[in-house]
Amino acid sequence: xxxxxxxxxxxxxxxxxxxxxxxxxxxxxxxxxxxxxxxxxxxxxxxxxxxxxxxxxxxxxxxxxxxxxxxxxxxxxxxxxxxxxxxxxxxxxxxxxxxxxxxxxxxxxxxxxxxxxxxxxxxxxxxxxxxxxxxxxxxxxxxxxxxxxxxxxxxxxxxxxxxxxxxxxxxxxxxxxxxxxxxxxxxxxxxxxxxxxxxxxxxxxxxxxxxxxxxxxxxxxxxxxxxxxxxx
Length: 232
What we know:
This protein is mainly beta. The protein contains two helices and 18 strands. The strands form four sheets. A five-stranded antiparallel β-sheet has the order 1-2-9-4-7. A five-stranded antiparallel β-sheet has the order 10-11-18-13-16, with no helix packed on it.
């Protein structure tokens, strides 16, 4: 969880190479949180009744930040409705048929989406110690495929996670965060961030405690492959 102490100031690269980029055609609703050589992280917001323009997506994974009730309509007329609660995660395969979305609920809808850039590179070694195996009461797998493992961390107030390793990936805070702990060398660490924060974290080992009087909930979208090209 050290990787969510602060955003890493990644340089924004050119937009993902696919047609009808939602960031371009839906600029009022879709913003880039950050981008690196492996992922582009978007935050989309739609007020009740608002619609998007038609757009496409590469493969993506994400989490609903609010309860949502939306309708998706593809260019060939296929319609699907999505009803989900805040905090629910999702995976969606590449969408090459343009679609548009409409918030048909009575509240604002917000999601954080992580798009994968290019083809996946070589598999990364599995984290060790793996928090899913050594700390199952706090860390559980929501979804996994050959590109990403989605982990949900739920840590009650003042409970501690043992030494574990995180793979590189995107962190999304569902609650405020205040942690204290030690890194792999025993040096003290402390992190604070607000609910809704999104950041990239590199691979690291640490042990930490939820120092807050409130429960902590974090989604970690852990990459399972290296970037297809070497970092610049």
